[in-house]
Amino acid sequence: MEMKGENHKGKALNLLRSRVCDPKFAFKALYDSPESNYSKLKFMISSSVTEACNNSILLLGPRGSGKISVLELVIRDLLDEYPDSISMIRLSGLLHSDDISAFKEIARQLCMEHQLLFSKSASFDDNSQFMVAMLKECGLAHKTVIFVLDEFDLFAQGKQRLLYSLLDAMQSVTSQAVVLGISCRLDADQLLEKRVRSRLLVHMLTLPVDSSFPRDYAIEFNRRVQNIVEDKRFKETFNAYLNFDSSVKHLLKFLFCAISHMDSKTGFLSHENFKTAFSSIYRQPKLECLRNCSILELYILVCMKRLEVKEKSFCNFNSVMKEYKSIHDSFQTSDYYDRNVCLRAFEHLINRELICFTDNRGHSLSIEYRPVKLLISSAELNQGLKAYHSCPAILQKLMDREG
């Protein structure tokens, strides 16, 4: 009897772990409603496929909010429903933002998809004309080409020839395409509410009351999970975690950590499991790096975060310096340093991997002109500033204002 009991406890642990590692199950709680982003996105793309029409869609939201995860679920379902009617082309603005590499990559993927010979030596015009011709061929064969442009805002810079070419091709009667851009810009109002996170948590941790587990054990397990979720202490821990990082990706990491601390003898979860998980995740390398940053480096990070919130599509050292000067002029701060000192601090942040370059052109441009992006979330930066003992009050004030 005891052996059988140990089996179902281990089985419960494995089930919960497998759920946390399965994005389709994780997001099921979030797209059951016909009003969910999953349902809307699937309807828009499937309509383009079944009605042979062109469409353009833009997915906006902060990093980690689940844009790509939901898109992948939609695409997976559509490929199951229409296996012979969809052709996928995937590009990333971090790799293919310049027109030459973008058209070359499109040509390569189209050749691979349709079992054609790809020419590495083909010119920009050859690849551009090939794409237009293939769109017409796919349209005549009633096949929709779906272009997924990740980091879409990077494609919108410069000459934008790729976007113009795609839009021109979509004007053709014979073409059949969907252009789907993904961007982290305009993300302030896209965060999922905390009550939705709580619903996801209960969905992930509830055991099925069927023959898979002893009925009494499953009922008691679910009752305890519900009690934990409703407990005031748990709500404090959970809200502290959401304030620290509210992305779905990190929430699943949090749950996996909590599940891994489940008592193997009793086979039940407890509030202590979640508290331990929060404590272990709370101390992250990026937060440790922030504690060792100089005041000037903190200013640079806050300036970059302000530029991100202002939806600036292009950020480099020069634009950061303009924001830095603007803060100094507005608040008459005493912490104002020479440009060369700022550049060294900027390079230090790159070496610490708190920021990174977004281009793939090596060192052809001076460091002042190369586009950069933050590798630290607003929650992490905010938490780091609060933990920094000598942090200037103006920095925390600026972050609270942007938050």
UniProtKB/TrEMBL annotation:
The keyword Transferase does not apply. The gene is ORC4_2. Belongs to the ORC4 family. Gene3D superfamilies: P-loop containing nucleotide triphosphate hydrolases. Pfam families: AAA, ORC4_C. Component of the origin recognition complex (ORC) that binds origins of replication. InterPro entries: ATPase_AAA_core, ORC4, ORC4_C, P-loop_NTPase. It is found in: Nucleus. It comes from the Eukaryota. Residues 201-384 form the Origin recognition complex subunit 4 C-terminal domain. It comes from Stylosanthes scabra. This is Origin of replication complex subunit 4. Residues 57-200 form the ATPase AAA-type core domain. Keywords: DNA replication, DNA-binding, Nucleus.
